[in-house]
Amino acid sequence: MLDAIKIQWKRRLVQLMSLAVMGEFSFYGVFRCPFAVPYVSCGNCPVIQCPGRKLWLTVWLVILVSAILFGRAFCGWACPGGLLSEILSQFSLLRKKITGRMEMILSTGKYMVLAVSLYFVFFTINPRWAIPIRTGDFFNSVKLTFEHGNGLWLTRTIIVLGGLALCLLIPHFWCRYLCPTGGCLEIFRKISIFKYFKTSDCNDCDACLRSCHMETRPKEINCTNCGDCAGSCPVDAIKFGVRDKSE
User: Fold this and answer.
1) Beta strand spans in 56-193 (E)
2) Which residues on neighbouring strands pair with residue 212, listed in sequence order?
3) Is 207 helix (H, G, I), strand (E, B) or coil?
4) Are 71 and 222 in contact (CB under 8 A)?
5) Which of 19, 170, 186, 188 has the fewest Cβ atoms within 10 angstroms?
6) Which of 182, 231, 230, 199 is nearest to 71 (CA)?
């Protein structure tokens, strides 16, 4: 139990450090990025105030390395959107209601959003859907961006905000069912080097499921290697390390 508490505190510290580094970048990506898909065309972005112009390549490199090593750990340890989702999910009204077949069906949503995002990036060269305001008062610039964004930009932004707002209804709705980065990292989750997994001692009591804010179990869909379940297992069947031989 003490080890699990230590893991949680370490995760909170990493989340706060990540928020300090990437928080503004994340905000700009949602509210001011003029491109169809945020965070990937930052080198050509006319919004000169956005820190992403300097951060974006480094951030994606960090995500790639972490994905190879730890699967979806970025989602649970460093993503500012994941942190916001986690905070909102503390107030979710429908906990442990989406399970089984419904969980699998809804989870395909993030792969569909990922496919659409890849289409816009590689086949339409990530078009601009808003006329960005280059400089000026922070919140007034956000207001003007909304005023000068076309219907597609407004639709994209409303979907993102709506997905986050739905965390108040279903825990981590955005991360579990809509986030394209989560969809990409979900693929890496299956092949990552290090992860939490269940040993043969597991008796399927689902204590780990009940303690998980993503409402999953180690090594299963939407597991972010956060470690919150580490101290929940009554038979100590949850371990962390190189993936087990049975995979």
Assistant:
1) none
2) none
3) helix
4) no
5) 19
6) 182
Cα(200)–Cα(48) distance, integer angstroms: 54
**Cβ–Cβ contacts within 10 Å for residue 60, how many?**
14
Element (DSSP H or E) covering residue 150: none
Which CA distances in Å does 188 have to 4, 72, 74, 232? 24, 7, 11, 25
Unique residue bearing structure tokens 């990292």: 185
- Identify the CA nearest to 221 among candidates 61, 94, 109, 92: 109
Q: Are 166 and 89 in contact (CB under 8 A)?
A: no
Measured CA to CA, the distance from residue 180 to residue 19 in angstroms comes to 20
Sequence length of the chain is 247
Per-position pLDDT tens, the chain of length 247: 556 678 888 999 999 999 999 999 999 999 999 999 999 999 888 888 889 999 999 999 999 999 999 999 999 999 999 999 999 999 999 999 888 889 999 999 999 999 999 999 999 999 999 887 666 677 888 888 888 889 999 999 999 999 999 999 999 999 999 999 999 999 999 899 999 999 999 999 999 999 999 999 998 999 999 998 988 899 999 999 986 554 4
Report CA torsion sign: 120, 121, 127, 131: positive
d(CA 6, CA 9): 5
Interior/surface letters 168-199, b for 16+ CB within 10 angstroms, e for the rest = eebbbbbbbbbbbbbbbbbebbeebeebbbbe
How many angstroms separate the CA atoms of 146 and 157, rounded? Answer: 9
CA torsion 202-206-211-215 (nearest 10°) is 110
